[in-house]
Amino acid sequence: MTTDAITRFDADAAARGLQVEVLQRPAADSLAEAAALLGLEPGDIVKTLVVKRHDGGFLLALVPGGRSIAWKKLRTVVGVNKLSMPDAATALEASGYERGTITPIGATGDLPVYADERILGRRVALGSGRQGASAFVDADELVAAYGATVADITDEEPAR
């Protein structure tokens, strides 16, 4: 994590008029534990995933906790035949953030954002561009600020 990433995050949030609260968070061993520590429901914790398009471009997918990308649904919404998850180094290069800290806020590359419809109407926690902290934001404001495409793009994760 570099100061540049924090500065980029803060500047982008301010430029878009997003009210974001960044809070330090303790480490957790599971989604349920993380949600309990943050005082949230598991679905209020949103993963920002870098997804590679078949043409070499990238997009960001906002996935609520307890769910995973439904590849067929996402391909249909994006209008492509092939999408994949890049390795960690490629995700960093595409977004400017390390895995576990990725967020649309301040991401490099002006990546299009696709949000699962289940995040709407919630205050969510997502990556803050820095390790050990979460960004809390109104999901509807986040979607509006990035012109995100909202659709059913996830499936429930199987019970472990």
Number of helices: 5
Strand-and-helix sequence, N→C? HEHEEEHEHEEEHEE
Specify the helix fraction band. 25-40%
Major sheet? 5 strands, mixed
Oligomeric status of the shown chains? single chain
What strand order characterises the main sheet?
5-2-3-6-9
Poorly predicted sequence stretches spanning 5 or more consecutive residues? none
- The whole-number mean of residue pLDDT values reads 94
Indicate the structural class: alpha+beta
Q: Shape, please?
A: globular
- Give a count of the beta strands, DSSP E runs of length 2 or more: 10
Radius of gyration (CA) equals 15 Å
Tell me the fraction of residues in β-strands, as a range. 25-35%
Structure characterization notes:
- With 160 residues, the chain is of the alpha+beta class.
- Helix content is 28%, strand content 28%.
- The protein has five helices and ten strands.
- The protein has helices at residues 3-15, 31-38, 71-78, 88-95, 139-146; strands at residues 21-24, 46-53, 58-64, 67-69, 83-84, 113-116, 123-127, 133-138, 149-151, 154-156.
- The strands form three sheets. Strands 5-2-3-6-9 form a five-stranded mixed β-sheet. A three-stranded antiparallel β-sheet has the order 1-8-7. A two-stranded antiparallel ribbon has the order 4-10.
- The chain is globular and about 40 Å long.
- The mean pLDDT is 94.
